[in-house]
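Journal club side-thread
Mid-discussion, someone asked how the predicted structure for our own chain would compare to the paper's figures. Pasting it here so we can look after the session.
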Amino acid sequence: MPVPAPGELSSRLELSASAFRANVAAFRAVAGPGRQVGAVLKGNAYGHGFSEVLPLAHAAADWLYVITPGEGLAIRAFEAAQGAARRAVLVIGAASASEVVALAAAGVDVVVADRSFEAAAPLLRAKGLRASVHLHLDTGLGREGFTAAQLDQGDADGLAAARDVFEVKGVLSHFANTEDVTEQSYAVTQLEAFERSFKVLQRRLSIPPSTPRHFAASAAALVLPPSRFDVVRVGISLYGLWPSTETRLSAKVVLGELPALQPVLAWRCQSQVVKWVPAGSFIGYGCTWRCGADTRVAVLPVGYWDGYPRLASGKAHVLVNGRRCPVLGRVMMNHLIVDVTHAVADEAPVTATLLGRDGDESITAELLASWAQTIHYEVVTRLGPHLARRVVE
């Protein structure tokens, strides 16, 4: 059943096209000449909206990375509908044998991370198709990818025996710990493992030394220059968010001058009602807040169903007319109640900013995450797909 369209009073997300373009340009400068920039659109484009971000990423980036085969095919459908030139597209998540066939037919690259690729070979031959694949190496994350031992025992050798249906177009890996530290000793060991395994692939599969490599995500692209290789695979930071405080500190040392990353997303909501409640009144479920004085409150039709974290109860604030307004009591499924006593002069409807800038004040995803005892990745990716999203300049 489709999700109903949002009502007029529902909260909305505004996506800045100029901010997105500026962030891509910043990473082009960081990557340096001769390298390409890839945009990661997983997790509903980090909660920003896959269909809304796709035109921006398609126009600005060289590569598009997605998790699911359906997303890869959706990019090809978008290009066909728009008459747009094809971008390099790579599905970095799992794909079944039949999905590999569909991706090959659409000209979408796919990651090979284990011997499951062998099941796709006869299906590709039956269709007369050849799949473009990128070998995923597990260099220390312990997730998907061929380990060094698996390469040595020949787990990827079937690709050489099936060159008629598989063409190796790239090699990639994922860092485990670049964002959480200011020293990169573990990342250096992963780089060394990557180089060793790449040489094994050259020997066992006869892939050329010029085979494109992509390893650096946002943090590594900023703080670990040897990891940049041919393509930088940028996710969170293309949306204007630093991977971590540690990354920001390290980037200052490595780059000298920090890139001016610009948050792409703002979250705003029109009030449902604005009213006075008398001193001594309780606010919200559980009676966890009691007004110490007469208080003008705004009821906002947004809550944890929409992705506003319940753990921010009693700590968060929103912006109204450029003023910080505390969230009173518990965050509810569909409502927030905020104190606007000092932000407005009457009971006219107000527009609250839950994320983003209003005047000289701003609420960042990092700040909301700190109130909710989580990370900003989770805050933005949990924004409800049902929320209205609008691209602005």
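Post-session note: The first strand starts at residue 12 and ends at 16.
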